[in-house]
Design brief:
six-stranded parallel sheet; 267 residues; NADP binding; Rossmann fold; 9 helices; 19% strand; alpha/beta; oxidoreductase
Length: 267
C-alpha cells in the first residue's frame, strides 16, 4: 500500500483526503491519503522523514508552499511560481510541482473557455495569484494582475511574460477582458463581499473564483446575472488534485468520482 498525504498547518478541514481516496477506490490504486500537521519550524524534518519512510507523494499547503521549494527539486514551472504544492518522492529524491497552475487552466478549459489569445485579469498577487498569472500567460493569454498592494502586482507582472500589474484602481480592465480570476481571499466566509465591482462584469467574460466557501460567491452570482460564464472554486481544487493524482500514479484521474466526493463534502 502506498501512502500519500497533505502537509500543512492547519490541515484539519482539508477536502483532499476524501477526494483522493475516491480516486484510489475508482481506479483500484492501493493507497491511503492522510494529513500531516508539522510544527512551523519542522517542515524540513517532515519532508526528509516522509522520504525516508517511503511516502509516495505529498500535497503541500499553507504555510509551507514556499519553504518546500528549497527542500525538493522543483520543476521549472514551480520554480517560476515560487511555490510547490505537490511532491513526488521518486527514486532520485523528491521532485516538486505546482498543480495550482493546471487547476486554473483546466478549470477554464473544462467550461469551454479558450485561453490562448484571450486577455485575462487576475485579482490577487499571493500564491494563488502567482500560479494563475503564470498559468494563463503560459497558455497564451495576455495577463493583467490587479492587487490591493500594487507593488506586489507590478513585481509579479515583471516576471510573467507580457504581463502588466497595478492596484485595485486598475480593475476597470475587466470591462475589456475575456477572463477574470479571483485569487484573493475576498468572499471567503463572506457572502456579501466581492473583489470586483459588478459594473465591470459583462456577458463575454468567464469568471473563475478560487474561493470555494461558499461555493456561490457574490462575485459569481453577479457574474451569472450579466450572463458571464462562471466557474466555482471547487473546480480549481478538484483539478489541482486531478493533476497531482496523475503526476503521482501516471493514470488518468477519475475526474467524475473525485468531483462527486469533493462536492459531497462541500455541500
Ligand atoms: P494565497 O496563497 O491564497 O494567494 P496570500 O498569499 O495570503 O494567499 O494572498 C492573499 C491575496 O488576497 C493577496 O493578493 C491579498 O492582497 P495583498 O497582497 O494586498 O495583501 C489579497 N487580499 C486579501 N484580503 C483582501 C482584501 N480585503 N481586499 C483585497 N485584496 C485582499
Amino acid at each position: 500500500m502506498e501512502v500519500y498525504g497533505l502537509v500543512g498547518n492547519p490541515v484539519g478541514h482539508s477536502l483532499s483526503p476524501p477526494m483522493h481516496e475516491a480516486a484510489y477506490e475508482a481506479t483500484g490504486v492501493d493507497a491511503r491519503y492522510v494529513t500531516f500537521e508539522p510544527e512551523l519550524d519542522a517542515i524540513a524534518d517532515a519532508i526528509a522523514g516522509a522520504d525516508a519512510l517511503g511516502v509516495a507523494g505529498l500535497n503541500v499547503t499553507i504555510p509551507f508552499k514556499q519553504d518546500v521549494l528549497d527542500l525538493v527539486e522543483p520543476d521549472p514551472l514551480a520554480e517560476r511560481i515560487g511555490a510547490v504544492n505537490t511532491i513526488d518522492f521518486g527514486p532520485d529524491g523528491p521532485v516538486g510541482y505546482n498543480t495550482d497552475a493546471a487547476g486554473v487552466t483546466r478549470s477554464l478549459e473544462r467550461h469551454g473557455v479558450e485561453i490562448d489569445g484571450g486577455s485575462a485579469v487576475v485579482v490577487g498577487a499571493g500564491g494563488a495569484g502567482r500560479a494563475a498569472a503564470f498559468a494563463l500567460s503560459d497558455s497564451g493569454a495576455s495577463v493583467h494582475v490587479a492587487n490591493r498592494t500594487a507593488e506586489k502586482a507590478t513585481t509579479l507582472a515583471a516576471v510573467v511574460p507580457g504581463a502588466t500589474g497595478g492596484g485595485l484602481d486598475t480593475l476597470e480592465r475587466v470591462e475589456d477582458a475575456d477572463i477574470l480570476v479571483n485569487a484573493t481571499s475576498v468572499g471567503m466566509d463572506a457572502p456579501d463581499e466581492t473583489p470586483v465591482p459588478a459594473s465591470y462584469l459583462h456577458a463575454d467574460l468567464a469568471v473563475l473564483d478560487a474561493v470555494y466557501a461558499p461555493l456561490e460567491t457574490r462575485l459569481l452570482r453577479e457574474a451569472a446575472d450579466v450572463g458571464a460564464v462562471t466557474v466555482d472554486g471547487a473546480w480549481m481544487l478538484l483539478l489541482q488534485g486531478v493533476e497531482a493524482f496523475e503526476r503521482w500514479t501516471g493514470l488518468d484521474a477519475p475526474v467524475d468520482e473525485m468531483n462527486a466526493a469533493l462536492r459531497a463534502h462541500l455541500a
